[in-house]
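Thought: the user wants the 3D structure for the chain below. I'll pass the sequence to the structure tool as-is, report back what it returns, then summarize two notable features.
Action: structure_tool
Action Input:
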Amino acid sequence: MSDRESELLRSRREKLERLRARGVDPYPPHFHRTHTTQQALELFQQAEAHQGATAHTQAVTIAGRITAMRGMGRASFLDLRDGAGRLQAHLRSDILGAGYNLLTELDLGDFLGTTGPLFKTRRGEVTLEATVITLLAKALAPPPEKWHGLKDVEVRYRQRYLDLMANPEVAAIFRTRSRVVAFIRRFMDGLGFMEVETPVMVQVAAGAMAKPFVTKHNALDRTLFLRIATELHLKRLIVGGMDKVYEIGKVFRNEGIDLDHNPEFTTMESYEAYADYHDVMRMVEELVSTAAQEVLGKMKVAFHDHEINLAPPWQRLSLVEALRKAGVDIERHDTNEKLVAAAAELGVQVQRTESRTSIMDKLVGSLVEPKLIQPTFLVDYPVEMSPLAKAKPGNPRYVERFEAFIGGMEVANAFTELNDPDVQRQRFEEQEALRRQHGEEEFDRLDEDFLESLEYGMPPTGGLGVGIDRLVMVLTGQRSIRDVVLFPQLRSLGSSKEPEA
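Observation:
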């Protein structure tokens, strides 16, 4: 800490003690405000429409953080910011009397409540003429040096509260996120889906190819895992007769961190009885496009220097054909050796010891995904890449699966769900065999309880997973997932083990 910083902290502490000595509570338990800053501005606009240029309103009470102070002898101006916006307050010694002396103990960052009528200054700014001021919280640490200039990524992510204080546009991103999630709920409810909750701690971390986080339940003396997907519990509900279900919640994958990966992320998973992946495709098109229209007022968004049109219909592209156009024919390259050789020719780094699933996934990730800028459904995946999806009729080597891509990034994944318990057991056993063969790779896990549930019968079902974080990235034009997650995971201070994106 610099000498200047130490002096600022000392000065604020001294002011705190002087306030207490004067009998002022620097942290009162309650304050009643009548209006937010935005509501106050709207009230003045209504008054101005009736009274004209000399409009005044009745007294209102607002509260907020002091973000600017401009002293003018016996009069001062303060900017107060709350969650809705900013409003200027005018403080005069002849109106406030002894209360005006409180200003000498105030600093930027303090929370202040004030009451008074609204008027417009000669410069045309709507202002509150303070008749009463109340200190609501004394800030002992100074705010960032520049209210509109906090750019240090480390500080922005680690101390998100400072980011929100300094950069109003950040709060706008998270308001948009909140509206997107609220819209998704309305959309799904409107289609007759029921929102449910499933366990976060599970005995088997199944439903995806990912490494789980491990925890321990002491009372039961049992190892548990944080869920990597909500899929298998939601499908149990389809078995039980809940025909349309969805869940919005966190899932956890013990993987690396980059621009579009965070170890914990938010998904919306849905399952609909008597639907297939074609039905789900149409639902995704409508969900995303109407979310954009509802929240942003438009279906075209700017993302990574591209203008993306989210309006349906979206492009449908076969995975096999997409790889073929990129230079790899996975039907002709039908052994790992051939696939590794083809990857090497195209500059994709894979190992001969990797599974075919891993190699194909890297080929798609390197050669296909980055080119899918406009909304695209990549459809019909090889069965080894999708152990939970139903085989295509007449072609058991491929399954009815799609992934939705926007801006070169996956935002959704869906299947026509496999509901044959014997085939599902065989697929899980093959995954376990691959796990033993390729110990460093992640494969889906055999969940005996889920297999038992399938034996009671599950109707044809269309399943969907939407990445909420990535969808918000697209809708708000953010390049990093950390800019749409309020508290992203970060490496420890002073550590270089985890790469920062």
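Final Answer: Structure generated. The CA atoms of residues 78 and 463 lie 54 Å apart. The domain at 3-143 is CATH 2.40.50.140 (OB fold (Dihydrolipoamide Acetyltransferase, E2P)).
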